[in-house]
Design brief:
With 274 residues, the chain is an all-alpha fold. 84% of the residues lie in helices and 0% in strands.
């Protein structure tokens, strides 16, 4: 008798949480935009110092042809860098899990690659590589390590009792990897991919800014640098808004993918009864 009302109340709470998670950020964003507009109007700040939100929106519409083309270039590089990082990170993590010799030999160099600032690497890559390849390499470098580290952690954190049970029943190393280790490491792997999605965009932006300083480039970050040189601050803000929106979309797409992969069995994706 009581199961029906309990489930109904749980569904109502879940809907309420979804509404709050959507409405509250939108309300905060709206308040921030209103405060921004009020400050610009009240202080009479000139557009070349701080443009108002309405001017930024008008610039976004009027310069859409240029900005959208640059956005497509940046997103293409980001996607390519992310896919390379995902494939390379997961593949190398599997090799590390299967061979301690390979892990001990290569993992320190992956750490060195991660801790070296991409701002310092980008100008060097632009010297030795064509501009598109250098930008892609920067996007890959910053996105690669989170996938590698998280997947390696997940594969090495599998319950040893379960692994021993698989071996007791005569499972091969491939069967243990495919049926036990990879599914168990999936939450860590997806967490690394969510981090890598944003970092690949950051790497592409940093490399495009460096390319712009060298007199080359066509991505959205190049447009930001170009607008700064020309004191076209409204276009700079419009390009920055597009970059922010692109980063948010990447994060939510990867979060949705993670939820769809984990929703039926992992605690992080199952709605708690609160």
């Amino acid at each position: 008798m009581s199961a029906g009302p309990t489930k109904s109340a749980s569904r109502e709470r879940s809907r309420g949480e979804v509404v709050l998670r959507i409405v509250l950020p939108i309300a905060v964003l709206a308040l921030g935009i209103l405060a921004w507009d009020a400050v610009v109007r009240h202080k009479d700040i000139p557009p070349y110092v701080l443009p108002g939100p309405l001017l930024v929106f008008k610039t976004l519409v009027s310069d859409w042809a240029v900005l959208s083309e640059s956005l497509l270039v940046t997103l293409t590089t980001t996607l390519e860098g992310f896919l390379l990082a995902a494939a390379g990170g997961v593949g190398l993590a599997v090799l590390f899990n299967q061979s301690r010799l390979i892990e001990y030999s290569l993992y320190p160099y992956a750490v060195i690659l991660q801790v070296t600032p991409v701002v310092a690497i980008a100008p060097l890559l632009l010297i030795y590589l064509p501009q598109p390849a250098a930008v892609l390499a920067c996007a890959w470098i910053v996105a690669f390590f989170p996938v590698l580290a998280n997947t390696t952690l997940g594969l090495n954190s599998v319950d040893h009792n379960l692994a021993d049970l698989f071996r007791l029943y005569g499972a091969s190393r491939w069967q243990v990897l495919r049926r036990l280790k990879l599914p168990a490491a999936l939450p860590n792997m997806l967490g690394g991919l969510k981090i890598a999605g944003g970092l690949s965009l950051i790497g592409a932006v940093v490399a495009e800014i460096a390319a712009g300083a060298a007199g080359a480039g066509s991505g959205l970050a190049y447009r930001i640098a170009e607008s700064g040189y020309r004191l076209n601050i409204p276009r700079m803000f419009a390009a920055l808004v597009l970059l922010s929106v692109a980063g948010v979309v990447i994060f939510f797409v990867l979060s949705l993918f993670s939820y769809l992969m984990l929703r039926r069995w992992h605690e992080s994706a199952i709605a708690p009864d609160r």
